[in-house]
C-alpha cells in the first residue's frame, strides 16, 4: 500500500475548492504584538501607581485579631488588583513584584535626561500622606480649637518649668536642698573638705 499525503483543500477552511491556497500566505495579516514597556519609575510614581496605594489602601477594611489570614488575603488581593491596573501585562504577580523592587533600588535617567531617585519619590509620597492625614477633616473651627489647646498646653508647661526651677536663695553648696554643711557638722566630719 502506498501512503498518500492528505490533500488540503480550500473547503477545509471555508473557502471553497476553486481557491488556490498558495496565495493565502501573502494575504494573511501579520499581527504584531505590542512590545510591553519596561517597569520604570515613571510608571510606579504616576497617579495610579504608588500614589494610589497610599491614597486607597488605608481605606481597606480588616477584621483584626484572630483573622490575620483573611486580612492578608484582602491585602494581597488589593495589591494584585492595583498591580494589574498599573501594569496590565501577562506577567506573574510575583515576577512583577520582584521587577518593581529591582527598579526601586536603582536610580534611572528620565526621557528628559534628569536623574530619577526612587528614595526621593518615596519620601515625598510619605510626606504627602502624613500631611494629608494630619489635615484630614479639619475645618476652621477645629483648627481654632487645636490652636487654643496648644496655647493652653504651652502655658501649663511654662508654669511647671517655673515651679521646677531652683529658688534663688540656695547657694552652690546647697544645690540639692539639704541645707548648709554647717547643719551636719555634728553628724559628719567636714574638716578637710574646704
Automatic annotation (TrEMBL):
Name of the molecule in the record: Chromosome segregation in meiosis protein 3 domain-containing protein
Location in the cell reads: Nucleus
Q: Name one Pfam family in it.
A: Swi3
Comp. bias (Basic and acidic residues): 136-161
Q: Provide the GO MF annotations for this entry.
A: DNA binding
Give the domain of life: Eukaryota
Q: Where is the Chromosome segregation in meiosis protein domain?
A: 39-107
The record lists the organism as: Cladocopium goreaui
Is Metal-binding one of the keywords UniProt gives this record? no
Supply one GO CC term from the record: replication fork protection complex
Q: What does this protein do?
A: Plays an important role in the control of DNA replication and the maintenance of replication fork stability.
Q: Which UniProt keywords apply?
A: Cell cycle, DNA damage, Nucleus
Asked if the keyword Ribosomal protein belongs to this entry, the reply reads: no
A GO BP term here is: DNA replication checkpoint signaling
Q: Could you tell me which residues belong to the region Disordered?
A: 133-176
Indicate the family of this protein: Belongs to the CSM3 family.
Amino acid at each position: 500500500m502506498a501512503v498518500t499525503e492528505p490533500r488540503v483543500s480550500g473547503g477545509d477552511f471555508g473557502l471553497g475548492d476553486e481557491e488556490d491556497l498558495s496565495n493565502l500566505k501573502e494575504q494573511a495579516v501579520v499581527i504584531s504584538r505590542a512590545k510591553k514597556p519596561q517597569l520604570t519609575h515613571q510608571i510606579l510614581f504616576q497617579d495610579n501607581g504608588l500614589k494610589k496605594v497610599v491614597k486607597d489602601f488605608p481605606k481597606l477594611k480588616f477584621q483584626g485579631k484572630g483573622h490575620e489570614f483573611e486580612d492578608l488575603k484582602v491585602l494581597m488581593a488589593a495589591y494584585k488588583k492595583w498591580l494589574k491596573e498599573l501594569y496590565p501585562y501577562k506577567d506573574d504577580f510575583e515576577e512583577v513584584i520582584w521587577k518593581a523592587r529591582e527598579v526601586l533600588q536603582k536610580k534611572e535617567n528620565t526621557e528628559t535626561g534628569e536623574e530619577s531617585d526612587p528614595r526621593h519619590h518615596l519620601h515625598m509620597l510619605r510626606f504627602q500622606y502624613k500631611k494629608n492625614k494630619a489635615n484630614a477633616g479639619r475645618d476652621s473651627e477645629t483648627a481654632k480649637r487645636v490652636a487654643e489647646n496648644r496655647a493652653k498646653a504651652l502655658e501649663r508647661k511654662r508654669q511647671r518649668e517655673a515651679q521646677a526651677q531652683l529658688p534663688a536663695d540656695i547657694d552652690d553648696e546647697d544645690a540639692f536642698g539639704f541645707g548648709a554643711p554647717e547643719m551636719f557638722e555634728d553628724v559628719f566630719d567636714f574638716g578637710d573638705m574646704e
